[in-house]
C-alpha cells in the first residue's frame, strides 16, 4: 500500500523538485525533536522467557536477519541423566493461542502441532516454528524435535 501511495506522490511532486519550486513547500526540521536510535548490538538479541510471549514474538520479528534472535536451552537425556546447553537462533514464531499450557514443569518446552512451545512470562507461551543451530541450516520445529530422539528440552 505504501509503495502505491508513495510512488503516486513522487510522480506528482517530482516536477516541482526538479524545477526548484518545492523549496517553497519545504519545512525546516526542528532538531530539538529529533531523536537518535542507538546501534543494535548482538547482546540485545538474547531472549528472556520471563518476558511475555507477545514481546518475544515482536523481538523475533524486529531482529530478523541481523543479528537474529537467540536463546539458550538445556537438553536433558532422561536415560543417562546428562544435560547439554545449546544455543538456538529463533527464526519464526507466533504467540501460543491455547489458554491451557500442557503439564510439566514451568521450564519444560513441549511440542504440539508442528511447533515448540516455550512457556513465557505472565502465563503466556511462544510457539517456535523454525530454528537454526550454530553452523547448521534452518529447520522446522518438527525436524528439530525429532532430532532430539526422546531427550527433554528446558528453557534457561
TrEMBL record:
Residues 39-148 form the Formyl transferase C-terminal domain. One of its GO terms (molecular function) is methionyl-tRNA formyltransferase activity. It comes from the Eukaryota. InterPro entries: Formyl_trans_C (IPR005793), Formyl_transferase-like_C_sf (IPR011034), Met-tRNA-FMT_C (IPR044135). CDD domains: Met_tRNA_FMT_C (cd08704). It holds the Pfam family Formyl_trans_C. GO terms for cellular component: mitochondrion. Keywords: Protein biosynthesis, Transferase. PANTHER family: METHIONYL-TRNA FORMYLTRANSFERASE, METHIONYL-TRNA FORMYLTRANSFERASE, MITOCHONDRIAL. This is Methionyl-tRNA formyltransferase. It comes from Olea europaea subsp. europaea.
Amino acid at each position: 500500500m505504501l509503495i502505491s501511495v508513495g510512488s503516486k506522490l513522487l510522480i506528482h511532486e517530482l516536477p516541482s523538485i526538479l524545477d526548484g519550486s518545492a523549496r517553497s513547500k519545504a519545512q525546516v526540521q526542528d532538531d530539538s525533536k529529533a531523536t537518535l536510535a542507538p546501534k543494535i548490538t548482538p547482546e540485545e538479541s538474547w531472549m528472556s522467557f520471563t518476558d511475555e510471549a507477545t514481546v518475544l514474538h515482536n523481538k523475533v520479528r524486529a531482529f530478523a536477519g541481523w543479528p537474529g534472535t537467540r536463546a539458550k536451552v538445556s537438553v536433558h537425556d532422561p536415560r543417562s541423566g546428562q544435560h547439554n546447553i545449546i544455543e538456538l537462533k529463533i527464526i519464526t514464531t507466533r504467540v501460543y493461542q491455547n489458554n491451557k499450557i500442557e503439564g510439566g514443569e514451568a521450564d519444560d518446552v513441549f511440542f504440539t502441532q508442528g511447533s515448540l512451545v516455550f512457556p513465557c512470562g505472565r502465563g503466556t507461551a511462544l510457539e517456535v516454528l523454525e530454528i537454526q543451530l550454530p553452523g547448521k541450516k534452518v529447520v522446522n520445529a518438527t525436524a528439530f524435535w525429532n532430532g532430539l530422539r526422546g531427550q527433554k528440552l528446558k528453557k534457561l
